[in-house]
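Here comes just one.
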Amino acid sequence: MIAVVQRVSEASVNIAGSVIGKIEGGVLLLLGIEEADNQEDISWLSKKVVNLRIFNDEAGIMNKSLIEVGGNILIVSQFTLHASTKKGNRPSYIKAAKPDVAIPMYERFIRETEQNLGRKIQTGEFGADMKVQLTNDGPVTIIINTKDKK
């Protein structure tokens, strides 16, 4: 799994003119799932994201987690995170999981993240043509690949 974690002051997802997910203060997480991902990747990444210390403490130092600041999460699926650009100019998405694998994993990731955070989170819609808006706070953008965890 690859996650692009962006600290945001606000973020939303729009499909066909309707807002389906919106947060104020927290994290916009773009999530790419590949065929080789498993439950261990889901658990590790979910815990990492909710405990990642990317929010300022009283001294202005990034020392607090999403849990500690009571922040929100907006999760958006994004298969293009697994694009291979090694050959030619047209990206290949061969490593990205097909919907029959990716959708159940995406849904498990959402449920596990809600459990780890202790409340409901906002999401996009898997496979939809989404318009994502955000105000990156900092800016803070971190890329996490579960294959690099060891």
